[in-house]
Amino acid sequence: NYKLNVPPTSRHNKRFFENLSGAGKAIAVLTSGGDAQGMNAAVRAVVRMGIYVGAKVYFVHEGYQGMVDGGDNIKEATWESVSSMLQMGGTVIGSARCKDFRMHEGRLKAAHNLVQRGITNLCVIGGDGSLTGANLFREEWSGLLAELVQQGLIDEEASQKYSALHIVGMVGSIDNDFCVTQRKCYLALVSALACGADWVLIPEMPPEDGWEEKMCQKLSAKRAGMKRLNIIIVAEGAIDRNNQPITSEHVKNLVVQRLGFDTRVTILGHVQRGGTPSAFDRILASRMGVEAVLALLETTANTPACVVSLCGNQSVRLPLMECVQMIQHLYLIKYNNNTNVFVCTCRSFENNLKTYKLLAHRKPESELPQSNFNVAVLNVGAPAAGMNAAVRSAVRVGISEGHKMFAVSDGFEGFYKGQIKEIKWADVGGWTGQGGSLLGTKRTLPAKHIDKIAEQMRKYNINALLVIGGFEAFLGIMELLAARGTYEELCVPMVMVPATVSNNVPGSDLSIGADTALNAITVTCDRIKQSASGTKHRVFIIETMGGYCGYLASVGGLAAGADAAYIFEEPFDIRDLQSNVEHLTEKMKTSIQRGLVLRNENSNENYTTDFIYQLYSEEGKGVFDCRKNVLGHMQQGGAPSPFDRNFGTKIAAKAMQWISKKLNESYRKGRVFANTEDSACLLGMRRRALVFQPVVQLRDETDFVHRIPKEQWWLKLRPLMKILAKYKTSYDISDSGQLEHVVLNRPKQSEAMAAI
């Protein structure tokens, strides 16, 4: 229920951060509030980017308490002081909830400690309370300095020199309770989406009266359908309509007494707050940390304090004051006396709730619309974690829309062989958390079997197709589209949902499965580096998958803290390899003990993984030794990450809703006939939104020889990896430095009620 108001200035003119200097500036970084995974990655990025541009960077240990106490709590950071912290959970510089900082006297002491060290740039990593406190500190800054002058603690010259305090905030919180941050949702609700929970109880949406009976009826029906277990998620603070708490113990007793089911309670507690950060959290934190330093470098006396964040895959800066003011609007729960229900005004919450209810609660047959349309869903290409979540979502949304859903086994090969059967609501139960492709998937393309596929379309009266897969799925849709002139059976709505670990599908910045693969790479790299914890001066050469697409190597390298990543999209030669060896040699002379180099499997036909390993081994003699690892298909297997489960769930649901719309538009005279360009689309993530794009329009954006898009957004992240590895490089900041504004869009009452 907010929108980002982008300034009209053009973002197409490239700007580079080399024109920004941190010389003479002092930046302090602190973490405040509860620990959150990724905080260390953010601290590391702020420190290294700050030092890189010539600024002095200080740690403030123990959050605001350390700023108030001063002394050794505020120490200058070095490049090496943030080594080996990327993969660590929590915050190594400490965090504390500070009562002193809430008092005027405490903030006065904090101001004195900062001025003594010449610090006027503050990077605060924390949640709602921490960033609200930072905003108050900045508002009071001039008054605090005046008091320090009056008390004789600083002179007038210092007051003038340090007259402006610049603050940039980064949201670091497992609660995700600050406005306009990415993945703006609630732990319990989105966890319910990710694991396919049978029931969820959350404070933002108290259940209607009589919920106990309805929940037990649903659990009983699931057991009757041969389901062996049920999951109920109870959020901390869950309440009923009478504002009475709903506890996990109460729910357990309810199930035991009414149903007699063997029931266990697991309270996750601080398990949720600890642990190693995911690849997403590391990349998010690293990008936000670098963006925070850039924002501080560009500040003037009139620049408002801002929060750096991520919207879609794009960095944004938002005025801190506007965000603080927006919190009360976005996350306020209101009680509606007319309808006797609670209404939460956060639209993202409403969307998540709609999706969960759509997939978890089946309507009675009598309440379902009768569309008389048959929709087929199939997986094409290599397996990708999250495919099953997408199929489950598509099937259940399709049934809710009144369609008859058909599952095609083994992709287009199974299609022309007639491996097609109707798939019911219960058939996809428990699919969300399973890896691979339960439908079966193959790389076979349809062109050689178009006649047989058309025959099967006619036999089963298929009115629409949903294809979930990678580059082969994209090619397959194009081949079906090209055959429409010959086979009328193919003149039906078709939509593709990208699902591939390679993330090489044109028209989408992200693909289902890529996040799980990145996590596999990141965790493996952590373990590989840990294997040398007792060995000095070792470099690991690691080969990743991806075909000709360097996404996994590049973004995985950023998440794992790699020193270099060799990819096809960025050609390299022997001089580059030699330069990297020399760079690592210099680093090994400091306290840095281990190096990490990633190589995409098809980055260069001559400079193979073996060649690079042998080159590094020979040139590094006497300084470091080498080991090599080929990660292989472990990047393709395993259970899908929560991100891939939810991404697959939401994008497939949106695709099915598009299919329903197109079926109604193209139904004429008792049949479906769709042969326009926009009746065969790819649904992809583009910058900040999911967008339907006709596949024919994506032809010019595609390098068909190497099976990659001609332009790839993540290439802009490669300089970040190099900067954080201490390489001198050029960094395009065209997408940075634009302050946007938050505008409240209040949902209509009817929309809010529809969600409930």
Brief synopsis:
By secondary structure, the protein is α/β, with parallel strands linked by helices. Helix content is 37%, strand content 17%.
What does this entry look like structurally?
The chain is of the alpha/beta class and 756 residues long. The strands form eight sheets. Strands 13, 14, 15, 16, 17, 18, 25 and 26 form an eight-stranded mixed beta sheet that branches. It is globular. The two termini are 16 Å apart. Strand 11 and strand 12 (341-344) form a beta hairpin.
Keywords:
single chain, 756 residues, alpha/beta, eight-stranded mixed β-sheet, seven-stranded mixed β-sheet, 22 helices
H/I helix tally? 22
Gyration radius, rounded = 28 Å
Strand percentage, roughly?
15-25%
Number of strands: 29
Helices and strands in order:
Layout: E1 2-5, E2 26-31, H1 39-52, E3 56-60, H2 63-69, E4 74-76, H3 104-116, E5 121-126, H4 128-150, H5 156-161, E6 166-171, H6 187-195, E7 199-201, H7 211-224, E8 232-234, H8 248-259, H9 279-297, E9 306-311, E10 314-319, H10 320-330, E11 333-336, E12 341-344, H11 347-360, E13 374-380, H12 387-400, E14 404-408, H13 411-417, E15 420-422, E16 441-442, H14 450-459, E17 464-469, H15 471-482, E18 494-498, H16 514-530, E19 538-544, H17 551-560, E20 564-566, H18 574-588, E21 594-600, H19 609-619, E22 625-630, H20 642-666, E23 667-668, E24 671-672, E25 680-686, E26 689-694, E27 702-703, E28 708-709, H21 718-724, E29 741-744, H22 749-755
Parallel strand pairs: 2-3, 2-5, 5-6, 6-9, 7-8, 13-14, 13-16, 13-17, 17-18, 18-25, 19-21, 19-22, 20-21
Antiparallel strand pairs: 1-29, 3-4, 9-10, 11-12, 14-15, 23-24, 25-26, 27-28
Keywords: Allosteric enzyme, ATP-binding, Cytoplasm, Glycolysis, Kinase, Magnesium, Metal-binding, Nucleotide-binding, Transferase
Family: Belongs to the phosphofructokinase type A (PFKA) family. ATP-dependent PFK group I subfamily. Eukaryotic two domain clade "E" sub-subfamily.
Pathway: Carbohydrate degradation; glycolysis; D-glyceraldehyde 3-phosphate and glycerone phosphate from D-glucose: step 3/4
